[in-house]
Structure formats: C-alpha cells, structure tokens
Amino acid sequence: MDQPGPIPRTAGRGALRDRLTIPVLAFGGILMAVMQTVVVPLLPDLPRLTGSSAGTVSWMVTATLLSGAVLTPVLGRAGDMYGKRKVLTSALVLMTVGSVMCALSSDIVVLIAARALQGAAASVVPLSISILRDELPPERRGSAVALMSSTVGIGAALGLPLAALVVQYADWHTMFWLTSALGALGVTGVWWAVKESPVRQPGRFDIPGTLGLAAGLVCLLLGVSQGGQWGWGSARVVGLFLGAVVVLALWWWQQLRTELPLVDLRLVSRPRVGLSHVAALFTGFAFYANSLVTAQLVQAPKATGYGLGLSIVQTGLCLLPGGVTMLLFSPLSARISAARGPRITLALGAAVIACGYAVRIADSRDLWMIILGATVVSTGTTLAYSALPTLILRAVPAEQTASANGVNVLMRTIGQAVSSAAVAAVLVHHTSLVGSAPVPTLHGYLLAFGIAGAVALTAGAAALTIPGDATGGTPRARGRTQDPRDEALEGA
Questions:
Q1: What is the pLDDT of residues 344-390, one digit of tens each?
Q2: Backbone angles phi, psi at 401, to 5 degrees
Q3: CA neighbor of 289 nearest in space, from 372, 221, 353
Q4: CA distances from 278 to 140, 262, 286, 391, 456 (A)
Q5: First and final C-alpha spacing in the chain
Q6: What is the phi/psi pair of residue 432, to 5°?
Q7: CA 34-39-41 angle, 5° bins
Q8: Residue 270: helix, strand or coil by DSSP?
Q9: What are the residue ranges of helices labelled H in 300-397?
Q10: DSSP code, position 439
Q11: In angstroms, how far is CA 322 from the centroid of its own chain?
Q12: Which strand (E) or helix (H) includes residue 433?
C-alpha cells in the first residue's frame, strides 16, 4: 500500500496533541518496562506474604514472560489488520487491569493470572514504533524510533529503585495501586493524543498459526525458564524442548502454506529481516546479563571478599545511571543511523556492549567501576536497540511493520530468557560457602561477563553480515511498492 506522504491531521486535533504523540508513546514504553520490573524486589518476601512456596511465586515472573512472548507477535499482527492505536490501547488496558488485580489480592493464583495479563504490554513498543512510522515524516522518525526503543532500558532502570522504595516504606499493594494509576494515565494519553493509522493489511486472522506459535513458544520458554529448577536433564524439560521442536516445525510448515499467515516467513527469510532477528536474539542475551548479574554482585555479602552488601534500593540506584544514559544517547543513535546506516549502528552498539563487559572483567570490586561498566553496557544497548527497529522499518512494507517488529521483540525476549538461564547455570556451578550459605564466586560472575561479551561480539558480526542499504535495497513483499517516506529516510 503506497503512502504518498505524512498522514494528514484532522482539523479537530490541535498542535498540542501532535506534539504529545511521541512523549505519550514513550511513556507507554517506559511504563511497560516498569511493570515488568516492579515485582523483582517483592520476590524474596512474596512466599511469606502469599503463603506460597518460592517455586510457585517464581511464576509471577514466568507468567509475564510466557504471555508477553506469545502475545507480542499476535498483537502486532492484529495491529496491522485492525488498527495499531486500537490494539495498543487494548494492551495498555490489559496491563492496567492486571495491576489493579495485584493491588486487590494476596492470592497467588490471582497474582499469577494478573501478571499474565500484564504480559500483553510487551507489544507496546513494536506497536508504537509502527505508529511512528505511519505518523511522522522521515526527518523526525529516526530519533523518535530510537527513543521508543530505549524506553525498555529506561523503564527497567527506573522501576527497580521505585519499587524497592515503595516496598521498603509502604504496604506492597501500594506499589500496584501506583502502577494502576500510571497505567490509567497511559491509556488516557494514547486515547487523546495518538491518531489511528489508516495503514492496514486486511484479511482473515490466522487462528491455527496463533495457536501453534503459542504452544511452541510456551514449550520452549517454559523449558528454558524452569530448567535450572526442574533439572536440565529431567523428563519434563527434555519433553518440553522436544515438544517445542516438533510444534514449531509444524507451525513453520503451516505458515508457509497459509495465504495470510500470522508471521510472513518468506519476509523473515530475506537476509535484511532474518539477520536482524538473529542480531536481536544475541543482543537481548547480552543486554539482560548486565542488570541480572550486577544486581546479584553488589548485593553479595561483604564476607565473600568481593560483595558490597548493598540493599535492593541501593542496587536500583546503581543501575539508574544506565537508564539515564539510554535516554541521553538515543538521539545519537538516530544520527549515526542516518549518517552510516542502522547496521553500522547495531555493530557499534554490540562492540560497546563488549567493551562494557571488558570493564566488568577488569574490575568488579570497586563500586564506581561496577557502575561505569554497567553504564557502558547500557550505552551500547541504546545504540543496538535503537538500530534494530530502523532495520526492520527499512526492510518491510508499511502494512507489516507492527507484526515484523513484534517478531523482533520476541527474539529479544527469547534472548533474555536464555541469558537468564545461562547466567543462573554458570553461577550455580561456581559457588562457595559463606557461613553456611552457598554464594556465587567472583570467578562465576566474571565468567558470566565473558560469555555475555562474547555473545555481544556475535551480535556485532551478525549485524555486519546484513546487506547494506546501497546493495540490499528495501524488499517489496508480494509486489507492494515501498513507502516513499522510507526512500527519503534511506537517502538521509
């Protein structure tokens, strides 16, 4: 579907609403990341507060991961078909309803169901990026997309200290009442300031494809997330992985033979799209290890010889500079992508991430060096995450941007899940007794940093193999012509 220029505004929409479109969408992205993070400080106390086991409580994280992974590509496809603003608003409503349920209940079953509802918010960023493509002229689109991509790290950096402060000084339900109010504000902002895009890909929704993808992803991510607890060689985990291989293979076969598939695999098979997804997988792995390992390292007891014994509030403040850096560096990422191309920005970001982990390996005892290394990793993540959606926007037709970016975010999510499992496996196998409690050794942390740095370099290598703009061109899926605004963006 050709788009001859920026979508015109209706007379009833004032200049204020036009100016608020980007901030409102960015607020939604930050809120999504905050919602995913706020439960972390609660996890140690939730077994006592809910009368449940630690294993049951862990499902408050697992449920969000699984539902987010399944719903992100599904809601992206729904946005392309039925309207991105409509689906974005629905995702924010589900997130807010889940927060209200958490605020009203202490029953673990209700809490897990509520967190599963909140997983719908994982689609906020890809849907928002697609709206920005449809709404903004090329000269504004690059910086807006870069900011939107950075909201994931910004929200995570803000959410941890905010939640820790609330948990420390107020009843834990207060935290969810606060996030409910913020969610309601986000829904109102999108309804008021964001215009519905007329860019659509009409057709029949692929229900068999949706069910197949859901079943395959649940098997895969459940095995990855629970492997450390259930045992990697246990019948349950092995069965889940075998089930994932079989189901996803059948799903792939079905998608190639469906006229209007949930995921256009022919588009994914093109190097500019497929390699971007591969790079997203590795970048998600490298990014997540930073906050995961840093939080554990600085909270380790001083008796270990390397730990700083910080509280959860102090830990959140250590990660806060990384979030601020992501906000400040997102415009730089857009400028580098405009000048050199997003694949160069992605490769540069991956290299910076690796440098950050080199700093962590060089010194993980002094607090200022820990913060410096974590901030360098966050800087590289900003460059990489900002470049990924730009690569997708240049490589797919306008009417498939939400679903394509949804798949890209899914790949990041899988990378983060694998990173969590890998880091846990490394730290479990490198422990020593402090008192009577097993605690990870410094060597275990350094090994985790080394693995994350190596994966970051792999992401950079994958980025450099993506065909450049000068040689690759923008694919024209199924004979559709390219959006002229994207041609102007590529010529920037």
A1: 999 999 999 999 999 999 998 899 999 999 999 999 999 999 999 99
A2: -70, -40
A3: 353
A4: 27, 19, 13, 12, 12
A5: 22
A6: -140, 160
A7: 105
A8: coil
A9: 312-340, 342-362, 367-395
A10: E
A11: 16
A12: strand 431-434
